Structure formats: C-alpha cells, structure tokens
Amino acid sequence: MNLEKIQTENMFLYYGTKMALNDISITIPEKKVTAFIGPSGCGKSTFLRSLNRMNDLIDGVKIEGKIIIDDINIYGKNIDVVTLRKKIGMVFQRSNPFAKSIYENVAYGPRINGLNDRKQLNEIVENALKNAAIWDEVKDRLGDSALGLSGGQQQRLCIARTLAVNPEIVLMDEPASALDPLSTSKIEELIVQLKENYTIVIVTHNMQQAARISDQTAFFYLGELIEYDKTKKIFTNPEKKQTEDYITGRFG
Amino acid sequence: MIKSFKKNIKGILIEGLTLSSALVIIAIVVVMITVIVIGGKNQITWEFLTSFPEDGMTKGGIFPAIYGTALLVIIMSVAAVPFGTITAIYLTEYAKENSIIAKTIRFAVRTLAVIPSIIYGLFGLGFFIKFVGTTMDNTFLGGQLKWGQPNILWASLTMALLTLPVVIVSVEEALKTVPNDLRAASLALGATKWQTIWKVVIPGSISGIMTGTILAVSRGAGEVAPILFTGVAYYVATLPASFSDQFMVLGYHIYVMTTQSANVDKTLPIQFGTTLVLLALTFILNISAIVLRYRIRKKKIN
Fold first, then answer.
1. Lowest mean pLDDT among A15-29, A85-99, A125-139, B250-264
2. Are residues B216 and B295 in the same domain?
C-alpha cells in the first residue's frame, strides 16, 4: 500500500490577493478514507478542488507549493489536466446528473474516451452501477431520464458515473449534505465499500459522518491545517485545543 | 381623511388618459389585423398560393414570392445560425466576462443590431456584389458577368448579417441556462472543454438555439430593405434554381403591387392576399419562438 498516494508540500492558495490556504502539508494514504472537517470557509473544499485542479476554472486562483500524486507534481509543467481528472474523479455536493438517460450518464466518461463498443459499454455501466450500489434500483429502467431519480439515487448515479472512468482517487465534496438520513447512510456504506479499490478523500460538515466512515481526519480552520491524524485519535484525544473545541461543538 | 374633490378628479383624469392611450394601441392592432384579414381572406386559395402571377401581374398567384422567401430564409439560416452560435459559444464558454475582447464583441453585436436595414442593403451591394462577386467573375470567369450582380446568394448573406445579432443574443441566453454544475461534472470526468460544450452544453440549450433561429427567420422573412439592391426581383418567370439567380419575395411583392403596378386598384386583392400570407408567416414563426422560449424558462425554473 502506498502511504503517500497524495502529498502536498507547503501549499498556498490565493483568490486574487486573498490567501485561502496557508502552508498545507499533508500525506494521504492509498485505499483509505480521509475526511476533511472544519467550519464553513475554512478552506477544506478549496483544498479538495485543488487535488484535481478544478480550481483552474475559477479566475484569479493562484497556487504555490507542490501537490504530488503518485510522485508527480500535478501543478508542474506539461501536466495534462484532462488525463489527471480521469485518474482523480469527483463527486459534488449537489447531485448533478446530465439531462440524459441513466445509462448515458454512466457511459458518458467511457464515451468521451472514445469507447463506443456496445458490449464493453454495457459491462462498464453495469459494473459501475453495481459498485455504486444502485444497480438493483435502476436495472429495469436504464433508458429513463436520470432526472427522474430521487436525490439520493441521483447522487449514487453520480458516483457510478465517476467510477465508470475507472479513477484511482475519488474526491467527494459533502456528497450527502443535501440528502435525507436514509440516503445518507446508503452513501456512507458505499464509501466504506469503495475504499477497497479507491482512495477516497471526503469533505464533510457532519462530524459523526467523518467519525463513522473515515480512517484519517484532517481538521482545517481559517485556511490552515490544524491537525491531521487517525480519525479515532482526532475524535477521542486531539492534540490541539482548536480541534477539541470544534469536535465538541464549542464553535463551528 | 377625505380626498379633496379636486385631487380625485385629477386622479381619474390621469388614469383615464393612460388607459385611453393603451386602448389606442389595442385599437390599432385590431383594426390593422381586421382590415388585412377581411381584405385578404377571400384571396387565399390553393391556387393563389401555388401559381405564378399572370396577366402582367394583375392576376394569378404568388407562388414564386413564397418560394423565394422560403429559400432566402433557408440560405440565410444556414449562414447565420452556425456563425452566430459559434460566436455565442465563444462569448459564454471561452471569453472572460469582462475581457476587452468580449466587451468589444458585445459592442459590435449591439451596433450590428441598431444599424438601419437599408444600410445592410448598401453594404451587401458594395461588399458582396461589387467586391466579392466582381472579383470572382474576374478571377474564374475571365470577367464574364455572373456573380457581380444581384442574386439570391448575396441577398441571403446580407440578410444573414442583419439577423446575426438576433441569433447571437438568443443562443447566448440559452447557453447561460445550462447550469455550471453540469460543466463541472463533465470536466471532472476528464472531458475536454470542447467535449463538454459539444456533449453537455449544446444539447442542453438546443431549444434556445432553435428559438434564436426562428426569431432570425421571422425577422428575415419580413425585411425588404437589405435585399432591395442585392437580389430581389420585380418579377421572374422561373423559380431560382442556382445561387446566381434572382428571386421574388413576399415583402417586396407587396411593395411592387402597391406602387409599381400598372393598375393598382386591379391588384388590390393580390396586395391584401400577399400581406395576409406574410403576416400569418411572421405570426406563426414568432408564436413558435415564444412557445419554445416559455418551455426553456419553465425547464430552467424546475
């Protein structure tokens, strides 16, 4: 197991002149669930979006330092962002299926990679939907619009869509924050299953969620990484007072 | 408090004045449409719509004008819709909102939209016919006159320029209705920007692109000034079969019938009939555009 799947060294991020991330150095292991927690605006989502360079889409974002994934600095020269994002999938806070059929949503990624063979596509779509624990619910209506699914189903479909590209890392930006408790627990179960094959990095507002599903937890506050350790340690015996204050609900 | 009588009267007067001016507008529309429908309705027969003018254009139908109008707007759309869509894609997907280039393009589009249509006609004459056409004749035909004179191609391209702002603005509006979440989802799956535009953004805004096209067609079908010098004819005995042919158009046919005819009274029914056909055509096009646009708005809200 690669203990240094993702590694950042003295990473700073600026929106224009405003510093949003201050000197982040972290090492994220392979095939584990790593959770980022912290109050709103602490930089955890911004940091997550730096890992697949989605921040490139925002004007005026400047990044200093290194983010190394599999020994390659992803902000180095000659990095193909498109290839990078195939390797590092992302699930968003609000489920965002395309206005296409369930099947075509999942087949989107393989198709843009040039795969058009129906048999292979069928196989990929079925596997991805199974891995995202939604196959049984949708197998009889793959041709129906994805927009007809419930919120929780849509989010699992978005996870299936991400898995269909066969990424190594899956980034999740508060994937269950808009869902009801039942759908949330389904997504949580799914995340725990997924770490067998994928490295998961999840941003969450929900501390119980982080405690339930993650192996490591990083606490962010005001753009800084305050504490990062095994989840158990963070939630039972944190080193820093700020961490303790946050997890015990004294602020945030 | 009791309102003073004077104030009360003043209020009633102002309300009455505003209401009556609003009623005048309704009256104008009603009278206009009634006159045209009553004058033209008996004229609309299958034969009128499908036959050529006869007896020195005092009898017969208006088929060449309908055919010419249709052909004009088709060629115009083939030129204006892709060009306008591509420009709109640049503006919404590529250009930074406040960059100098985007501002310059938007300024140019707005300017194009307010140029009087007769000036487009003059531009078409000078640019397409005198410059492009004559150059083509001199280069490929040894100076023989073929492209350096008015024809349906130059008229359609001139009309395309006129309708370009309509297309650009409606397509831009349609592209903006596609949520950024979907662009992000596509990019996060490793799609390139172009794949995202082609497979997510354009399919998501296709009805808006259609609306733009219909509005452009409706504008093009009604305009006469841009094609006056660039291709429309008083009368042609055959339908246009080549890009270098001249053609007839409904709007111009009305003008010809009303002002150039040997016997204006005799052609009155034809004038009414042609006007009714043109009016119905523009109405149908505009209503389809409104319906489409309404559907998009509804989709956007849901």
1. B250-264
2. yes
Indicate if B82 and B101 belong to the same structural domain. Answer: yes
Contacts of A92 in chain B (CB under 8 A): 181, 184-185, 188
Residues of A in contact with B179 (CB under 8 A): 96
Could you tell me the pTM of the whole model?
0.82
Looking at the fold, whether B91 and B25 belong to one and the same domain comes out as no
Contact residues, A window 31-60, toward B, CB-based 8 Å cutoff: 52, 54, 57, 59
pLDDT, tens digit (0-9, with 9 covering 90-100), for B125-139: 999 999 999 999 999
**Confidence band for A91, pLDDT divided at 50, 70 and 90:** very high
Give ipTM to 2 decimals.
Answer: 0.91
Burial class (CB in 10 A: 0-12, 13-18, 19+), A90: buried
DSSP designation for A179: S
Q: How far is Cα B179 from Cα B196, in angstroms, rounded to an integer? A: 12
The total number of structural domains in chain B stands at 2
User: 3-class DSSP state for residue A67?
Assistant: strand
Q: Does A108 touch chain B (CB under 8 A)?
A: yes
B19, B134: one domain: no
Q: Shortest Cα distance from B56 to chain A (angstroms)?
A: 57
Residue of A57, A93, A158 to mutate for B, most B C-beta atoms under 10 A = A57
* Residue B201 and residue B75 share a domain: yes
* B52 and B3, same domain (yes or no): no
Domain that residue B118 falls in: 46-301
DSSP type of residue A147: G
Residue B50 and residue B141 share a domain: yes
Distance from CA of A52 to the nearest CA of B (A): 8
Q: Which domain CATH number covers B285? A: 1.10.3720.10
Considering only CB atoms, which chain A residues are within 8 Å of B200?
98
Same domain for B55 and B147, yes or no, is yes
Cβ within 8 Å, pair A112-B199:
yes
Question: H-helix or E-strand containing A89?
Answer: strand A88-91
Alpha-carbon distance of B153 to B293, in angstroms, equals 30
